Structure formats: C-alpha cells, structure tokens
C-alpha cells in the first residue's frame, strides 16, 4: 500500500467517525521519524477511541499492521505509528495544549480528496520571515 493510499484510508476512517479538523502534514523534509502526520480531534475520550478503532480496523483490513498504538486507555491523545504515517487523535483540549500544527508549522499541509480541510492557521510573522529566506 502506498503512503498516499494509507493516508487517504486513515483520513476517510477518521472522517467516518466524525473526527474534526483533520490535517495531514508532510514532515518528511523536516524529520527523520516519519513522512507524514495525520492530526484530528474528537469531542470526547469515547469518540477519540472510536476514531482510533476505525482507523486501526481499516488498516488491518488492508493488510497494514500498526507498529504501536499509544494512549488508548486515557483517550485524550492516541498515537498510531504506521512508520511512514503517524496518526495523532486528540480530544479538543489536549490538541489545543500541544498545538502540533504550530510546532510543525513549516510542514506542508496536504489535501485529501473527499475530505474538507480545516482553515489554515495564520503563520506567525517570525516564521513567515524565515520562510522567505
């Protein structure tokens, strides 16, 4: 399965469980850990777990076994490691606190056909200046 197919599969699985603010970041030029992050939110720990379950189920049905799943018990931040794709599923408060989109603001946001992308956050002026260099 290609990275694009895996990304789309996971985004659609998250969307099927009404995940909000689904964002895919291309972190390959910035990190040696993975190529992409998929970040999304659920309104409660129950919904966060449901999103994680749907993603894991779709991956397994497609023959992809995640390397690790962390945080499932608490349900405030579940991380699913698929090597080239790392999925972060947050409750809304935890997502605001860690603000991965700001932390990885230099990463390119990727669109996934069929899923509406959230509005891009404004780039802080000091980062905008760095991008121009």
Explain what you see.
The protein has 133 residues and is an alpha+beta fold. The chain has helices at residues 3-16, 45-61, 92-98, 100-103, 125-132, and strands at 20-26, 36-42, 68-70, 77-81, 85-91, 108-110. The protein is built from 5 helices and 6 strands. α1 runs antiparallel to α2. The longest helix has 17 residues, at 45-61.
**H/I helix tally:** 5
Largest sheet: 6 strands, mixed
- Quantity of strands, as a count: 6
Q: Under CATH, the topology is which?
A: Beta Polymerase, domain 2
By CATH, the superfamily comes out as Beta Polymerase, domain 2
- Tell me the strand order in the biggest sheet: 3-4-5-2-1-6
Helix content: 25-40%
- Rounded mean pLDDT is 88
Structural class: alpha+beta
CATH architecture: 2-Layer Sandwich
Could you name the ranges where pLDDT drops below 50 across 5 or more consecutive residues?
119-124
The termini sit apart by 37 Å
Please tell me how large the radius of gyration is.
14 Å
User: What percent strand?
Assistant: 15-25%
What's the CATH class, please? Alpha Beta
Total separate domains = 1
Task: Please tell me what the overall shape is.
Answer: globular
Strand-and-helix sequence, N→C?
HEEHEEEHHEH
């Amino acid at each position: 399965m290609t990275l694009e197919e895996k990304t789309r599969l996971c985004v659609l699985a998250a969307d099927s469980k009404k995940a909000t603010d689904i964002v895919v970041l291309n972190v390959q030029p910035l990190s040696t850990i993975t190529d992409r992050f998929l970040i999304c939110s659920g309104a409660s720990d129950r919904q966060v777990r449901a999103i994680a379950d749907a993603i894991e189920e779709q991956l397994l049905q497609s023959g992809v076994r995640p390397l690790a799943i962390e945080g499932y018990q608490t349900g405030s931040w579940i991380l699913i490691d698929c090597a080239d794709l790392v999925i972060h599923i947050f409750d809304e408060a935890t997502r605001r606190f860690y603000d991965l989109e700001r932390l990885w603001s230099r990463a390119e946001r990727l669109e996934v056909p069929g899923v509406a992308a959230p509005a891009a956050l404004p780039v802080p002026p000091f980062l905008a200046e760095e991008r121009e260099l």
